[in-house]
Amino acid sequence: MSLSKYTVTAALPYANGPLHLGHVAGVYLPASIFVKFLKLKGHDVAFICGSDEHGAAITLRAKKEGISPQEIVDKYNGIIAKSFVDFGIDFDIFHRTSAEIHHQTSQDFFKVLYDKGKFTKETSEQYYDEEFDQFLADR
To answer: What is the Cα 20 distance to its own chain's centre?
Structure first.
């Protein structure tokens, strides 16, 4: 009998605060159970996740705490990773979107799509915070 190979991932949590039970029960626990089931059946499974360290939520948290966005992601990446261990959610790879490998892989992926003409260029207006010299989140 030939066993299948699987890659399983779950939504990347923003590294702007600790996980709450809704995160764990709604996203990561079901994925973890599925991965454990596949592994028990002898399948080759890669369970991959990581902290999302880019986004307005991080910038807003940094402003609120009076520290840099990098300090926020460094702080909460560790807290989030420990929470997964404490809940018995065992990723084969838990990475950070700030890592060079993530940047390079993302650039390569989008460059292929760009080269194939898969993007539509549009112009839109955005709110801008002159005091903090940054664009604001769409929300």
So the answer is: 15
